[in-house]
Every structure is written in structure tokens, then in C-alpha cells.
Task: structure prediction
Amino acid sequence: MGRNVAIKRYRPILGARTLDLFEPVEERRLVVLDLLGTTWIFRASELDYPGDAGVGRRVREAIFVNWEVNERRPVTFVRGRRTYHVDSIVQSWAVEYAWWDPVQHISRRCWRVLTREGGPYDLAFDRLNGRWLLLGIQD
Amino acid sequence: MHLHTHSTFSFGDGAANIEEIITRCVELGMEAVALTDHQGLYGALRFYKAALKAGVHPVIGAEIVLATAGLDAKEGTRAAREPLTLPASVGFGRAAGIGFHLTLLAENLTGYRNLCRLISRTHIRSAETSSVVSLEDLAECSEGLVGLSGCPNGEVGSAVLAGSLARARAALMRLADCFKPGSFYIELMNLLTPESPRYIASLASLAESCGLPTVASNNVHYVNPEDYRIHDLLAAASAGMGLPGPYRRPNAELWLKPATEMRRMFASLPQACDATLEIAERCDLDLGLGSFHFPSADIPSGETPYSVLSKAAWHGLEKRYRPVSPAAFARLQHELGIIDELGFSDYFLVVKEIVDYARGKGIRCSGRGSAGDSIVSYVLGMSDADPIEHELLFERFLNPARRQMPDIDIDFDSTRRDEVVDFIYQRFGSGHVAMVATVNTMTARSAVRTVARAFGYPIGEVNALSRHLPWASASRLREVLETYPECASHPLKEERHETLVELAERLDACPMHLGTHLGGFIITREPVDTWTPLQWAAKGVVVSQYDKDDIEALGLVKMDILGLRMHSAITETLHLARSRVGKEAVPEPFDLTPDDQQVYDTIARADTVGVFQLESSGQRNLNTRLRARCFEDIIAAISLFRPGPLEAEMIAPFIRRRHGLEDVSVPHPAMAESLSDSYGVIVYQEQVLLVAQAVAGFDLAEADSLRRAMTRGRSRADMSRIRAYFLERAIERGVDPEVAEEVFRQLKGFAAYGFNKAHAACFAKISYASAWLRTYFPAEFAAAILNNQPMGFYTPRLVANDARRHGIDLLSPHVNTSAIRYTVREDGRAILVGLRDVYAMPSRLLDTIEAERKIRPFRDLADFLRRTNAEPAPAESLISIGALDGLGITEGGRPPTRDELLALLPGIKTAIAREESINDDVLALVPAPTRPAEDLSHVSGWSPARRLSAELELLGLSLTCHPLDIAEEDLLDRGITFAEQLPGMPDRSRVLVCGVRERAQTPRTRSGRRTCFLTLEDSSGLLDVVVFEDSLRRAGEAIVKHRCYLVEGRLQNNAEQGTAIIAEDIRPYVVRSSSGAPVRLRRGVPSGPMGPSLGGAGAPEEDS
Result:
């Protein structure tokens, strides 16, 4: 399975509940250690160059995301004709950059997700135009 | 609860206004919140008071900068930043790039005092070293403090982010050892960066392994998510950088998040959120606001503060009142009783000690403010106005019904104020004295500059955008731009600056930096750093981090040791006069009975340039209308020309009634007696008390409470309650209900606008003394005023011109005759200008000139340069203003002209530098060809216009003539009326005048409309011009951008309103010499290094 075996093997649903990575369940410790040890904990958008970076790919595709209002998380997203089902949120972060410059201004909320179909994927909601983007793929 | 919150008092690293923090906490239902500004408690007292008022539990803390804890002693000798790379901004201020952040919270009063001590020790250890707390100091001062490991810029956080868990663990253990068990927490922040999960997981894991509790925080730097822009702006501006500033924050998540949001972000670590509640609960600090903490007076054994005060007061009574009147006796007894009851004896004794020291050393001083209402102040020599004679009421100063900190402000001769300050430090100990801070906040102009600089605009554009903005709050920027005439074509109105204006408005009142109060000192019994954090001020003095309101809230004594230049001027006038006419011929003016009608004539004809409090244009106008004849009139004049009475339009009825143009009518006879001094108009605050006493039978304490209630933030319900109580009491005394209602209406209308009579009476003593000196020793008085600049209302140019108009010659400075300061010559008929005011004169050169001249006079330029070693710039200034005129001789048998001297200067300097022989053969040097002399009749060879330009540019004075004299022919052709002609012209005449701007004021008016009061000067005197809003709209820009104007308007010249010109049209006027060159009208900096050909002295500016 290559890199990040624990993460890929990780089943983030326990019963009907989505689990959190920080919960001190023994099997999740491996995932945490994997996360701590990986070199890929950075934003896909920060990769030096687009395309395959060896550990992941930086893309910039408009996608459709099904948003769960109560849990405030993406549930599925559609890329091309395929629907991806989000199993777990690995992490989320926010980006606010160059607000004083209309050309360079970036304002995003990002989610790194694991899906039933694989992952992780970096999804971003662009707050400036209200659109969803797929920014990175680690698979 | 948020336990890590920065406000705007983090000076550049916080955009959260304290009131906004509290309001938001109330909205979110947060019961507690902590304030943890960088390196100090600057906003802590405001926060504490505001939180208590809003029902929020305040936790006071700070984010300090700490030396490394995670390296052992051997490694610790290396620079702390070596192992971890931190941005320079991490250390904040003087600790930049050196230490690590740590959050401290005060658990109780011990913790608060330790926090103050720790911060003070760190800041004032030395002005040069960085403000970094050592581990030893932290351990020593940690009692009563809760420590949080800090943000990612803390040592633990930095180590985790750098992947050095061992370093983080070592730092944690050592930090935890500084606190008592259970008082140190690992601070977890989920700042929503890509590193956050790893950061939190690592810290949580460390906490578990080290057995330390965790606590969640959000490093709050602004209240609302959208405020991140303000935070970025402030950070960039304070670092002197453009955006994105020093921190380069990756996102905008440092806002005050609701508890639900915080719990969601720490869903797997609920104990970290729970810990915020535990900590908030254990931090139960009570600062005991409302109690007073006086410094200790010097009390002999067997005595008490009261007994010492009482003896001194009775002794003083005998000296002040000969014979002692029953009224004075009873009054002193009454006041001493209240002072004892309130426990203020120590305070009075401390002030007395300081005043006694000053008087003992011959340092002129006088009290001001409501302290003048007290006979105790008077008999102890703290004030000079007799409270019985002037009907001043003690209860206005100290109201026994409201135990408030007394405030006695003393003005000292400003040239000797430092001696008094030294005494205070010696007497009370430097550890018990500190200066009070002021917080400098942003106005429209500074806010615009802040945003423009953060946007990276070039400095020229920053200046252009902020220039000509009036003094207004930033929140009114848009309104000012839209409505103020002087902003009619302001560049900020361009559409591209819309964002700049919007952001600048939001910076309104944002603290910029700490300043030092002009004269406020805290004196404490316990070490001052147990009450307030201290730090070095830019002035090089130790200053509290609290301002005067904070100090008052803490119950500490703040004494205003103010420097008053008028005291210095009076002392110097006496010295100059006595050295001319003998000591016996010049009495001490403060000892004179104020009944000299010549002095009152001086005041009544508004001949008051330089006279304390009576010289401004508005005040001079009032002087002519009031026509003062006695001391009470001076008190009235000072009181009437104040914002309150002006806003309440008290002057007109006062003047009309005084001159019998209107009947004096009051609703109740008892009121007539109370208001007899002011013709039935309520001018003084003390009169409100007297009326309430006379009509409703209030005692004076009750009456003062009524006055205060009417003055401050009265609600409709409050006022209704006060009214009912007043009416009830008045009607009980048999006052007709309608009459009582009318009295109350008048009290309500004027209570908020009245002026403190005691303050006016104290000032009136100085006014009379200065008017007396001006009347009898005008040359000495003018010289003293010029020697003590900056002071008063007018520029030195106008003071000198005024002296000349009074027949006093102004003699040009000369290296062979002038002293450093202005001196009086020709038996009081001339003033010789001192050399000190000449542009670019170093003090060393001044001393050398004086010393060399005592040996022998200077013969010529070379002799002067050789003996003084003057640098080219001051030498050029001296030549240009004529200080070397007439020295030396040319081949033509005449002294060299200024052009020739300036041309010779470089050659002589070079020769001296080469150590060539430069003696009497100086003129063997052939000067470079110069332009022909313009005016052969004058030794300088310069035309009057050129001499005048040089004087105005290099000296700030017009000695040759008034600038408008140059243009007299043109002005006469235009049909100008001169100032001296105006009093003889009919009221409502149309006039055209021309004058150089001296002052322009736009005081607030009751209607809210803007009126500009211009003080102009022509060669014959002062012109007072009133520019109402309509005219101001047309002429505002011309007024701001030019210095000299032609004013067309209607003359107002009658006894009731005085003399002024109501402007209808104002046009700029450029004064030109006969050659057509414009003449400079203000002091400036010469642009050329040497010689007139390079645009130095004498080169006029292009415009007026």
C-alpha cells in the first residue's frame, strides 16, 4: 500500500459516528503517528509545482460538494462523473492571503478528507466567489 | 472562556477594543475573560472596570517574553534563538527576536502585585537591555500567578513546531518548576493552520507524559472575524513595514470565537476547554477599587498627620488673615474637620512639603483648580486666592458626601521644575515615585498615515494624503472630507482611496504608544511597582503603564507638578527690571493689592499680548466689552471665555447686564444675592451650590452632589428624580412652585457649563501680576516672554512686533553685543535680540562667543571664525541676519556687505582648516565676485525685503519692518484699512483689510456650526476676523494653504460686541518686494549649505 499505510487502513466510522483522530483509541494512535511522521502535512496548494509531486498532486478543479449543515463538513463531492463519499476529515485549515491586493487575494476554508474511494483529498471553499475547488490529491 | 486575549493595548499586535471584547463576551454569554496584552498591563485597569460594570468576571494577565527554559545551563549561555528559529517579531518591542512568549494570569492580589513587579523589573532593569524575563525572576515572582505555556511563539510551541520534542519537554518541566504545583498549564491553540493537528497532538501527548494539565485558547487578537485586516495593518505599521507585516499570518482565525466553536475545535479534548472555566474561577482578583492609598508624610513622634496639618493650618491662618476674622476661623475649623473625617491629612501634608520646598528655594509656584476652593490650601500656601473674599466653596473641592481623591495641582516655574522633581524623588525614594503615562491614540491624520504606510505608499504620497486634515477623530474622517471647506479638493476623496478611508475610520482612537504625562507623578507608600507596572519612557524617565484615570481608579495619589512658563517669565521680568531700576523699585507683583487702575486700563483696551489668560483674540475682544475695573472682573473674564460658558452663550447677557443694557432679573430674591457678582447669570460652578442652598435649603455637600448629577451623563429619569427632590425642598421652604420650577430650569441649563471659580481666581492672580508687569515694565516683560518661548498664544514675531508698536526698538542681534538671550537696553526703550534663537546655533558656539567677547570684541569675520571655530551653517546664519554687519573693512574703505561676507566664508574656513595665518590680513583673500549691493544706504548692502526674508527665515522675527510694510504702496492702492483705524470707524462699515495669519481657531459652538476665528496682524496691530460657516465654505482652503490674506467684510464695532471683522470674502495675498520677488512669511529652514547662490538665507519662498 506504499506510504501512510495506517492512514489508508484507517476506518474512520465507528458504528454510525464519525471518529476524530485525536480520540485516544489505540488503533488511531498509529494514524496519528503516521500523520506526525509524514512529509505530506502541508497544503497541496503549497507544493512547489503542479502535477505529480511524488507524494501527491496539486490540482485546481471546480467540484460540486454536498455540505452537511449541522456537522459543518463536506459529505460527498463530485469530480467529473464520480461521487466521492467523505469518511473522515483528516484536518481542516483556513487561508487568508493578501486581502489588500484584489489580484492576489485568497480567502479559503480547506478540508483534507479521506473518502471511501481513497484519498486524502484537499477540498477548498473559496469565500471570495462561493465556489468549491479540489486542490490536491494524495493517492 | 478566553484566557489569551490581546487588545489594542498590545500596541500593534491587537485590534480588539476593550469595550468590544466585553460587549462580545456579554453577547456570547461568556462569564469571564482574560486580558493578556504583550509585556504589560496597559489596558488592564480599563478592562477590569469595564468588565465588572458589564457583569463579566475579569482576569488580568499579560503575555511576557521569557528567556529560554529548554536549554541546560551550559547551552543556555548561547543565544536563545540559536537552536530555534523565531521571527524577530516574537519578542515584541525591545525583546524582539530574543525570548519566548509565556502567558501569565493573576490569581489574586499577590499575583497581581507579582505581575507588576515582574514586568517592572524586566522593563526598567536598564534602558539598554532587552525586556526579557529571566527564569529566576519568574520563579521569584510566581506566587499567585497561573502560567500558560503560550502560543506557537512560546518556547514549548516553537520546539514542537521545530520537531524538537525533547527541547519542548525540557522547557515544560523547567517552566512548571517555576510555579506552584497545579498552576502551570499547557496552552493548546487550534489556529486552523495545516500544522495545527500535529501541534495539538504533540502538546497533548507531552501533557500526558509530563502530568501537566492542558487549557484551550485561541490567541485572540480581534473580536470579529472581519477585523483581521485592522490587525494586519496595525502590525505592519508598528513594525514600520508594508503589508503583510512582520507576522505573515496564514489566515484570519484569531478572533473571539464562541464557546460552542471552541468546543467544536477541541471536541476530543473537552478537558482543555473545561480548564478555562477552572482557571477563570480560581483567578479571583479584587483590586479594592474605591479605597485610597496615600504616601506617608513626615510625622514627628507623638503627633498624627491630622495634628501636624492642623497646627500648620492655624499658623498659616494667622499669617494670611490679619486680623483673623470669625468667618475665616470657622471656615478653617470646618474644613479641617472634614479633611480629618475623610482621612486626607497625609495627602495635604505631602503637597505642603513639596510647596514648602519650592518656596524655600525661591521657586515660584501657585495652585490651580478646585483646590483653590479650600482655605486649608490657601493658608498652607498652596493657592493664592482668598476663598472667603471670592466666595469659593470647599464642598466644590472636597465633598464629604462623596469620598473622592483630592486633586491639588501646583504650577512651578518651568525653568526650575526639575529641582522640585528631584526633591520628590529624594524625599519619597525613587522606588516610590513614578511618572504617569498618557496613551496616545489615533486621530484622523495618524490613522490615514498608518493605513497609507501599511499599503506601502511612498512617503511623499503619505504626506500628501494626510496634509491639511483638521484635528478630528478618525471616525469622522469621511464627514470631515465631505463637509470641511479646507478639504474641498483633498486627494483622499478620490475613489481609489475608498478602502484607505474605510480602514482609517476603523482605527479611531486606537492606542499608538505610551506617552508621559506633562507633570503627573504617582507617589506611593509601598513600592510603586507593587501597584503598577513600570517602564522607561522615551523621555528617559520611569513611567507607569497606567494613565491618570487608571491611577485614580486604583486610589493612588497623582500629583501634577506642572511647569508654567508664565512663572518663569514673571521671575525673569522682575530680574531684568530690578537690574535696571533697582530691587526696591520693583515690588513682588503677587504681593500687590490688585487695585491699580492703570493695570485695568491696559486690560480694558485689550493691550494684553503676553498677559496670562487674557491675551487670545477672543479674550481681547471680551476685555474691551467687559472693561474690567477690579479683580473680580478678571475672574469673570477668565471664566466667561471658556468652552462651557461660550457654549451656553453666557457672555452676551453678562455684558448687557453689566453695562445696564438689560435688567438683572432672577426668579427668586435669594438667587439675586448668590449671583450678584455675575448680574444674575450662573457663570461659576460655586454659584450652582449657592443657589441650591439659598432656594432649596440644600447643604453645600448636597448641593455639590446635585451639581454633579446635573453635569454628568444624566438620564431623563435621573433628572426627573433630581427635579422632584429640588422642588420638594424648595416648596417646603415656602418658595412658590412656579418660581422653584424656573430656578431649577436655570440651574439645569447652566450647571453643565459653569466654570470653577477657584480655578479662575488662582489664574487671575497670575493674570494681574503679568498685566502689572506689562504695564510698568513693557520691555522687560516682552524680553522675558521671548526668552521663555514657546508660551502663550502668539508667536515670537508678534510679541516682538507688539513691543515695537509700543515704542520699544528691536535691535538686531550682533556677535559683539548680543547676549545668548534677549536683553533690555537703552533704559527700557529697546530689546536686543539674543543669539540663541538664530537658526542652527549650537550651544557650544553661543558659550564660545560670550567667552571670547569678554576678552575683546570680534574685529572681522576671520577673527570671529578663528576664535569661535564656528561651523559654516551657523556662521552663515549669523552673517545673514546681520550679526556680523559692520565688522572688518574692504579695500573700498567700507565694511563688507553680507554678500561679500558670505562669499568670503568658505575661503576663510578652508584657510583656517589648513592652519594658514589668518589674522588682520584677512582681506588679502579676494572674495568671489558677488552681485552688486542692493541698498548702499545699509551696511548689509541688502534690500529691506531681503533682510526681512532672512530675519523671518532664520530668526522667526521681522526686525527690519513689518512684512506688510514692504507692500504698503500696493495695499494703499487697494484701499486697505489698517488695524489701528478700525476702532474709530462706524459699526457695520464695509472694510478691506490685509493681515498675516497669527492664529486660526474653530472652537465648538452650541449649534454645531463651524466658525473660524482668525487672528491676523498688519503693521499697525491685530485684526480679529470672524469667518462664519458660509464664508468658511468658500475660503477654508485659502485659509489653510496661505499665510497672508485680503479680507473683505463688515466691521462690527460696538460696545456690546467689541471690534471684529465679519468676513465675506478672503483671498490670499502674496507680499512682494520692489523686484517682484515674494517675501517669506514664516520661519523656515534654509535649503543651501553655504551662500545665497545656493538658495540659503535671504532666498524668499515662492508663495506666501
About this structure: The beta strands of chain A are 13-14, 17-18, 51-52, 57-62, 64-68, 73-79, 82-97, 106-115, 118-126, 131-137. Chain A touches chain B at residues 20-23, 32, 35-36, 41-43, 72, 90-100, 107 (CB under 8 Å). Chain A has one domain: 5-137. The longest strand of chain A covers residues 82-97.
